[in-house]
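Need tokens for this chain, all 442 residues.
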Amino acid sequence: MTAEEVTNEEQNNIPMEGEDITQKKDGGVLKLVKQEGTGTELPMTGDKVFVHYVGTLLDGTPFDSSRERGEKFSFELGKGQVIKAWDLGVATMKVGEISQLICKPEYAYGTAGSPPKIPPNATLVFQVELFEFRGEDITEGEDGGIIRRIITKGEGYTKPNEGAAVEVCLEGSCEGKVFDKRELKFELGDGESLGLPSGVEKALMAMEQGEESLFIIKPKYGYGNTGNSKYNIPGEATLQYKLKLTTFEKAKESWEMNSAEKLEQSIIVKEKGTQYFKEGKYRQASVQYKRIVSWLENESSLPEGEEQKAQALRLAAHLNLAMCFLKLQEPSSTFDNCDKALELDDTNEKALFRRGEALFAMKEFDRARADFQRVIQLYPSNKAAKSQVALCQKWIKEQHEKDKRLYANMFQKFAERDAKEEADKGMENGGGMEVEENGGQE
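Here are the structure tokens for all 442 residues:
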């Protein structure tokens, strides 16, 4: 401790005491519990924590306070979003705990300080209260479907991508009961064939090598409303998976492959997707077809004579994706892929027919009928399209009848209301006339 720090300490009567919570035990962060928290659980790396704090210099000069602002401060623990002392200190706290953290410069703002309020080489004192913490939501839309709690942080900055070869130790449990415990090697995208829910693969794509984490997986990313009979998992069950990503090898990204490699790999994954489709694994099949689209959609440096082959692969990928999404009852995605296919071949029979099916599922019967009629116009022998036109006409007729009844009832109500208003008005006018007439007779 420097002479200046001793002086500051004496001025404020803040004893330099508390538990040294640094890994090096260098006295850089001293923690003194002022109020015990509840429970036994501590926040983990990546958790979002919510705190109130008051920060002062050693001489008692305040420089920041969330309490004065009346708003709790939140950050993701262990991600370097705050000073080192906070990442260390808050990780040792329980909900409801209030602790004092005395932070040396190397664990705070260092030699630079944070002008104008925090001078260089300043030791800081924080009083921190932890209110709550929650796991990290790793879903794209942050819908709460997959929550991560990091047990052991991984190494490096890269993460597995779609198609990466991974080695993983996993333990799946439901309502506290372990149902799956394995060590696996597989390619991301093949998880369903191994009995893994989609959430596990999404979780692995968020992990670093060597990381061990606990994931809470909601039904949408688990086994859905049907559950899993093999593991005796009921429908709408929330799952817990402890995953350790031992190692992985990323699949080549589009920009890492030349045109010849993209074409070669597209043929391979097309066959893989077709096999999945035959086995009824439509989600896995769609993953393979999407890879073809991502590789070839914007490819502009194809060798002479290969453009036609690439276009045929793209067309097949979109048509197959449309079929997968029909099977998965996702008409909007079916429609989008049919549109893409028709950009490549505007008279394609399958694309027009499947787009009609998608529109029918979306209850857009007029537009669906137009697509089926276009199929008949181009391919008169297509009996299925003729049947679909008849079905569309039936639904359109029923809709018209329904609308007719609805509007008839509506107009009837309007007419009744108007008649009632006229009658009421007539009564008012008629009553006055009778008085006048009677008065005249008198």
